Amino acid sequence: MLSLRSRNPQLVDAEAAGAMTDEPQAPPTTLVRKADTEAKRQRRGQPTIGLALGAGAARGWSHIGVLRELAANDIKPDVIAGTSIGAVVAGCYAAGKLDQIEAFARTLTKRRVFTLMDLSFSGASLITGERLRSALEKELEGLEIEDLAIPFAAVATQVGTGHEVWLQHGSVSLAIRASYALPGVFEPVRIGDRWLFDGALVNPVPVTVCRALGAEYVIAVNVTADTMYRARVIRDDPGALHRAAEAGPFGQKADASFVDRFLPRYFDRQPGDAPNVATAMIDAFNIIQDRILRSRLAGDPPDATITARLEEVGMFDFHKAEQLIHVGREATKRALPNIFAHIPLSAPPDP
């Protein structure tokens, strides 16, 4: 893996790394952490466990339930990677802040979710993300990825080139922000000489990242595995075009509010409603993410998959944290027999 520390200490370009054959010496802190991980693995008699937390917007709160249930069964990841909302939960877990992110998620209501959507007038996005940034930095202020208890990486996408970027150094909160910066909704994040946005465009469930971090057994958590965006070919209705012409032009009502015109509509969205700007962008993004996810998991399948089926939960239902955490725990319980078939019950916890 090529570390681009000479250009910027926070970036690892996955595409560039894959093309290189001469690997530089790893930084001393990385060597110490890898040695510590290996020692823990030998004491437990287990393979090095990696946990890949996938993208999925509000559904990502189910990752909290996954981590809780794994811990209850004495399964603790040695390395962790996340994309988008998965990076939020993974970064907080690696920083020892899982309790704090769970408490934050459980306090969210429909009203509070909207208050966190501070409008942007920069022309780069609909939302600045400053209020979310403040909430993150309140808990993660001063924390560097190199200082976390376990190896952690967040996946982002470089604007313009589409390069997959693995953030493994520097500010935890900045790496998380870059990973969840949904194009057109949140402002992209500048790190060094690159502008970055949501990593779900290139690697929705970062199994490959966990393997690169040294994981021998990777557990992937997929929170978008349902029928919402499943591809289907639908034959056209011969009379549909005529009915569409009679229905009039596409668009919102003339007296629609600013919220109805531009902000995502998921709380009260009806099947026949015309999508506004944000809803159309997010739906398009989710469809693309679904297709990329299937391709990536087929090319590099995980050793175990925890699948949280959440068909009744929308991508912006952040106020349903209690339900989502419960779903995450139940999905993990279903996957445990397969996981334990390959990972022996661990020895007593380290002192």
TrEMBL record:
<feature type="domain" description="PNPLA">
    <location>
        <begin position="51"/>
        <end position="211"/>
    </location>
</feature>
<keyword id="KW-0443">Lipid metabolism</keyword>
<keyword id="KW-0378">Hydrolase</keyword>
<feature type="region of interest" description="Disordered">
    <location>
        <begin position="16"/>
        <end position="46"/>
    </location>
</feature>
<dbReference type="Pfam" id="PF01734">
    <property type="entry name" value="Patatin"/>
</dbReference>
<dbReference type="InterPro" id="IPR002641">
    <property type="entry name" value="PNPLA_dom"/>
</dbReference>
<dbReference type="InterPro" id="IPR016035">
    <property type="entry name" value="Acyl_Trfase/lysoPLipase"/>
</dbReference>
<feature type="short sequence motif" description="DGA/G">
    <location>
        <begin position="198"/>
        <end position="200"/>
    </location>
</feature>
<keyword id="KW-0442">Lipid degradation</keyword>
<dbReference type="InterPro" id="IPR050301">
    <property type="entry name" value="NTE"/>
</dbReference>
<feature type="active site" description="Proton acceptor">
    <location>
        <position position="198"/>
    </location>
</feature>
<protein>
    <submittedName>
        <fullName>NTE family protein rssA</fullName>
    </submittedName>
</protein>
<feature type="active site" description="Nucleophile">
    <location>
        <position position="84"/>
    </location>
</feature>
<feature type="short sequence motif" description="GXSXG">
    <location>
        <begin position="82"/>
        <end position="86"/>
    </location>
</feature>
